[in-house]
């Protein structure tokens, strides 16, 4: 096959270059070899730098991925912890301490969470302190909360319900001593005999008995030793709501009944007033055994 003119010229130039190299001086050949070696070394250094840079990049990427996985795992663990039942995660004793710092209503609501929470939130250890807080400063502790064998939760609940009771019963009258004094509208000669107005002697006291009688302290000048009886009158309307409720002694005007915030009682009319003497210390409590309105 015939060679072109360009191929002939290229061949000639390659031959001349080869001839010039082979016929060159030794120093020239050494310079060319050193130059080629330096270029090779530079290329290797560049490759080495690039390799190290790629390795550092891979390590950073791998570390970032590991940190991301750890963060995701920590976040997942936190979410699992938050979704976990605190009773299982913290234990009975710690949860008992937490609930003891809550108010009674919040503790009562936790009874509805689960069976485990119900057992915890109804324990006597928890409600004993709640009962003590409830009874602190109260004039009378209801008898129905002191029944032997009743749980502290039930004692607390019954005490609250009894504290809202405004209907006085015969047991209430008979269980308490009553301070007695005349009102400002009573005749002056009565008030002159009353230590409440004189301010020099202890107040007069009255006592109710289950047989319907009433007595006073010995030497009471107002009492005079006369016979006295009482009655509690309560009437209702059709739906069971109390229509009227009062206490009457002999034929004296009826006394309206009221309940104070400390669970003490007061009975009064325009002539005289009775106030129950606080007796929270009384063993077994006071008042009726059954709950009334």
From TrEMBL:
Biased composition (Basic residues): 54-64
Region ranges (Disordered): 1-23, 38-71
Record domain F-box: where: 93-131
Entries under Gene3D superfamilies matching the protein: 1.20.1280.50
Lineage top rank: taxon: Eukaryota
UniProt xrefs under InterPro entries: F-box-like_dom_sf, F-box_dom
Pfam families: F-box-like
PANTHER family linked: F-BOX DOMAIN CONTAINING PROTEIN, OS07G0170800 PROTEIN
Protein name, entry field: F-box domain-containing protein
